[in-house]
């Protein structure tokens, strides 16, 4: 066995720390989605905007904390986010980035070192991985995980509050549950307001403008078993829709599923 | 205007303290149900049993805290409950009592001074008045209050855990709500485990063995508006059903709606 093969075999068994995983990402050793990596640590959605768009976006997040729970915001032009991770550099530490011009996806890249500018501001928003981990730890089933697919997401008719050039109806994710589990999920998720918090709707999808639960607008459909209620959470795709509509000249995001892995334990996001 | 008429007119406007109301009850000046009295203070369901039945009933409460949330238990033979109220005497301080022999209602009385025995033990269980007050304070509508009727209650097929001679399926109360209000109600009631806590079921009544939501087993039917979900809470009628089935030789309870008014602020029952 070569030294490299030994290293690879060994690396399969290693649970990397967030800092170690970010280093691997930085050096091109890890280039795929981060689901299931660094369990117990917060992963974040990333939005990078020019300074003259950042104030509106910040206000949009503050007015709509359920779909846009802001975990951190950088200084203007500073690629570091020390409050989220030791040596964390937003230009290199995400596996894949998407670059949008005027709301149009232009390219997908492995780092943004050559795209960085002194006027860019980074926003990190909480994601559902954190609360899914808390639900699983309590013994609840999460159907999209059981079925090995992306969570189903739907456009709704629930309006977000408008902030400058940003507006959108809320996008929600859906996890089917028995009523007793849905009640337990409300309790657990209420502890985590910065990763979307409690569900926004339970039951009849048509009451929030969803007309076909079997055809999600994003992600994959999942089975809903007899006696289960669909349980809907505000979803981090909402700000992406708002960004597509607002069409800023430049916007950089993570690629779906390829999140920013932080040093924050999920438990630090619990308000109690 | 006579002195007595002046007193009566004045008394209509007085908000009695719990201690004052208990004194009025003790002296026969207040003989009806306590709903809406002494707002902000805990009212309790009362069960009085001989010592040789008390251990089983205590264990039934401990095994089934949702329908039987125990707030206080007296010493054997002691009619006072100092932890619930200054000078509170369980023999005189409830407007009406019911006396059961072998599970059969024998009489309704205004005090139990002549029925008291040295082997009796008093149990006080939390009641829904406390959480209804918290829901109203948050701006939620409670349909049975809006419609001026008793809350509808239903027998279910949710088994309680058996304790000695006590067993029962759970009885639940129902309040219809829009989904967002139901989610908020879960959050609020979770803070109050000793007054039944979070709902036990939301949605399809047949899943918990209720076949006709318009025909409650106890209390009155209420309107369910379009788009509302029935929300079900564990109910304090459950231990009454268990007592009827167990048929202890003697059991004394409050009359429905004529509760024990305590000195405990409702807020003291909040776990956070």
Describe this structure in words.
2 copies of one chain form a homodimer. The first copy, chain A, is an alpha+beta fold and 272 residues long. The first copy, chain A, has helices at 3-13, 18-26, 51-63, 128-137, 143-146, 179-190, 237-246, and strands at residues 41-50, 70-73, 97-101, 104-109, 120-126, 153-159, 169-177, 201-202, 229-234, 251-254, 260-265. Chain A has 2 domains: 3-127 and 246-269, 3-Layer(aba) Sandwich (PSTPO5379-like); 129-239, PSTPO5379-like fold, CATH 3.30.2040.10. Helix content of chain A is 25%, strand content 24%. In chain A, strands 1, 2, 3, 4, 5, 10 and 11 form a 7-stranded antiparallel beta sheet that branches. The first copy, chain A, has a 4-stranded antiparallel beta sheet with strand order 6-7-9-8. In chain A, β3 and β4 form a beta hairpin. The longest helix of chain A is centred in the N-terminal third of the chain and has 13 residues, at 51-63. In chain A, 45% of the residues are buried. Chains A and B meet through α6 and β8 of A and α6 and β8 of B.
Q: What's the Cα radius of gyration of chain A?
A: 19 Å
- The DSSP helix count of chain A reads 7
Query: What is the strand content of chain A?
Result: 15-25%
How would you classify the quaternary structure? homodimer
Biggest interface, chains and residues, is: A-B, 18 and 18 residues
Number of strands of chain A: 11
Give the low-pLDDT segments of chain A: 1-11
What's the story with the biggest beta sheet of chain A? 7 strands, antiparallel
First-residue to last-residue Cα separation of chain A: 50 Å
CATH homologous superfamily name of the largest domain in chain A? PSTPO5379-like
Helix content of chain A: 25-40%
CATH topology of the largest domain in chain A: PSTPO5379-like
Shape of chain A: globular
CATH class of the largest domain in chain A: Alpha Beta
CATH architecture of the largest domain in chain A: 3-Layer(aba) Sandwich
InterPro entries (chains A, B): D-Glu_cyclase (IPR009906), Putative_hydro-lyase (IPR038021), UPF0317 (IPR016938)
Protein name (chains A, B): Putative hydro-lyase Q8A57_00980
EC number (chains A, B): 4.2.1.-
GO molecular function (chains A, B): lyase activity
